[in-house]
Specification:
Strands 1, 2, 3, 4, 5, 6, 7 and 8 form an eight-stranded mixed beta sheet that branches. A two-stranded antiparallel ribbon has the order 9-10. It is built from ten helices and ten strands. The longest helix has about 35 residues. Helix 1 runs parallel beside helix 3. The radius of gyration is 21 Å and the shape is globular. The model has no long low-confidence stretch (mean pLDDT about 95). It is of the alpha+beta class. A hairpin with a 2-residue loop joins strand 2 and strand 3.
Length: about 400
């Protein structure tokens, strides 16, 4: 992506963010899904930021896309989660493993917002270990028949298309499929009992004797686990980028409030303990920005040389490190911002309180803190032979 295209994309993202803020604020207070996100994103043409130009996208490199997600993350983890579900883990596996017919059928329409995507891996009893999933499929002529439940899926209730994963009925290796949710046998339910992100759609779906064409197999049979794990690299990087935006917005709000709020005869920004919080948030912002940029750069290097296993491994590890660090830093930054705002910080009428509620899930989805620590530790120890689950 050249510099001019990069500036145009980031300007469009800025326009989207400025327009979506009032809608997001109202929807959050009313505790309802922000249905404005999709049409406003259509207006600014940001529904396919990293998708190649040939398929209707903007052709963004990973570094630029990460910067865009960081800006979107300032508007709320719920808003950013939509883009992660639609693009980072929805469009991405189709871009990387889809055949030409699949790319042509799904990517341009998803960039226009005519198709909304999601990624269906997690199940009620298969979270950190997706190999424990129970969804199955069997081949019947020119169709695959699927049965099972996916749970806690971002965009599940609004998606027209979901990249999902299942075992063959006789077990064996997991395969990946592109399913269209308007086909018979797909039942969906929104999950509303959430601690945060009320403006984002989170749901479950059940497939019962669900038929999908054999042409919707993504990659080869048995490639599903590899597709899922490599897609999670993109997903983790998107979460880390969004968390950077949370930290940035918490700093903006905390600085503004600290300068305006007067206690004990002076703005609280002049109190040393408030300055301690502000310094900690700034250090979190600086460190998170650096690790996200490094991880995004490594991902671009790996994409440019896909046969290079060393670059792929480096990008995988850095995405895990960035996600672990950024999600913890964002949680701490939001907590400190709430403390600076005091009683107002405990209200969702103010942005830090909303960030605190919403960003907590970032330490869970796309790889829990614990799973990422094990991954990082195994790498430090010397590789796969040191993995805790072997």
């Amino acid at each position: 992506m050249n510099a001019a295209d990069q500036r145009r994309l980031l300007a469009d993202v800025e326009g989207f963010c400025l327009e979506i803020r009032d809608h997001e604020e109202l929807c959050y207070v009313e505790h309802r899904f922000n249905h404005h996100v999709i049409p406003v994103a259509q207006k600014y043409n940001i529904l396919g930021m990293p998708v190649p130009l040939a398929y209707g996208g903007r052709g963004a490199d990973t570094v630029t896309y990460a910067r865009a997600l960081a800006r979107i993350g300032q508007e709320g983890t719920g808003v950013r989660t939509f883009f992660s579900g639609h693009t980072s883990i929805g469009q991405y596996p189709i871009m990387m493993w889809g055949n030409e017919e699949q790319k042509t059928r799904y990517l341009p329409a998803s960039c226009r917002g005519e198709k909304i995507l999601a990624f269906g891996l997690t199940e009620p009893d298969a979270g950190s270990n997706p190999l424990e999933m129970a969804m199955t499929y069997e081949r019947r002529g020119d169709k695959f028949v699927m049965n099972g439940v996916k749970y806690l899926i971002s965009n599940a209730g609004i998606a027209t298309t979901i990249v999902t994963f299942a075992y063959p009925k006789e077990r064996g290796r997991i395969s990946a499929f592109i399913i269209d949710t308007d086909s018979p046998g797909c039942a969906r339910e929104d999950l509303l009992a959430k601690m945060g992100m009320p403006t984002a759609n989170t749901g479950m779906f059940e497939l019962t004797a669900f038929e999908t064409p054999a042409a919707n197999l993504l990659g080869q049979e048995g490639d599903g686990f590899r597709i899922a794990m490599e897609t999670l690299v993109s997903g983790r990087l998107s979460v880390a980028s969004g968390c950077l935006g949370v930290i940035e917005d918490c700093l903006i709000e905390a600085v503004r409030y600290a300068k305006e709020r007067v206690q004990h005869g002076k703005p609280i920004a002049k109190h040393q303990l408030v300055q301690e919080h502000l310094a900690a948030i700034e250090m979190a912002r600086l460190a998170t920005d650096a690790i996200v940029a490094r991880a995004a750069g490594a991902k671009d290097e790996s994409i440019s040389d896909p046969a290079n296993a060393e670059l792929k491994s480096k990008a995988d590890l850095l995405a895990a490190q960035a996600k672990l660090f950024a999600s913890g830093a964002a949680w701490d930054a939001a907590d400190r911002a709430v403390q600076i705002l005091g009683g107002r910080g405990w209200s969702t009428l103010y942005r830090p309180g909303r960030h605190l509620q919403d960003v907590r899930v970032c330490r869970i989805y796309e790889g829990t803190d614990e799973i990422l620590k094990l991954k990082i530790a195994a790498a430090v120890l010397g590789g796969k032979e040191w993995e805790a689950f072997k």
